[in-house]
């Protein structure tokens, strides 16, 4: 007999290396925070709520979300925060709904975020 599905939450912080040229907006090495939540009936609204909560703890309360493309998630959102010092919107993350392949019926995953 299979156990019923229970809420799952995963979180990681680590260094990332990318094989790209260094530019004024990014380096070859950086630190990344990722989170993943799996539960029944999750929606994009749930994801946006989690992101607002997460970024508010970092002092970022003026956020906007822009549709984006990511091959692993659909729908996807890039996250921007208004930077008072620069007087412009700065991209601070990417997020989306992971495809529910291999999950029980009506179980969805939101992430990666930020």
Automatic annotation (TrEMBL):
Would you kindly state one Gene Ontology biological process term found in this protein's UniProt entry? Answer: phenylalanyl-tRNA aminoacylation
- A Pfam family found in this protein is tRNA-synt_2d
UniProt-listed InterPro entries: aa-tRNA-synth_II, aa-tRNA-synth_II/BPL/LPL, Phenylalanyl-tRNA_Synthase
Recall the GO molecular function terms of this protein's record.
Answer: ATP binding; phenylalanine-tRNA ligase activity; tRNA binding
An example Gene Ontology CC term for this record:
cytoplasm
- Ranges for domain Aminoacyl-transfer RNA synthetases class-II family profile come to 9-97
Could you tell me the EC number(s) of this protein?
A: 6.1.1.20
Q: What is the protein name stated in its UniProt record?
A: phenylalanine--tRNA ligase
């Amino acid at each position: 007999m299979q156990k019923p599905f229970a809420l799952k939450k995963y979180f990681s912080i680590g260094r990332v290396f990318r094989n790209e040229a260094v530019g004024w907006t990014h380096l070859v090495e950086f630190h990344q925070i990722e989170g993943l939540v799996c539960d029944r009936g999750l929606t994009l609204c749930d994801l946006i709520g989690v992101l607002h909560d997460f970024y508010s703890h970092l002092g970022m309360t003026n956020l906007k979300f822009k549709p984006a493309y990511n091959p692993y998630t659909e729908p996807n959102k890039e996250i921007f925060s208004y930077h008072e010092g620069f007087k412009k919107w700065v991209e601070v993350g990417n997020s989306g709904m992971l495809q529910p392949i291999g999950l029980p019926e009506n179980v969805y995953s939101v992430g990666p975020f930020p």
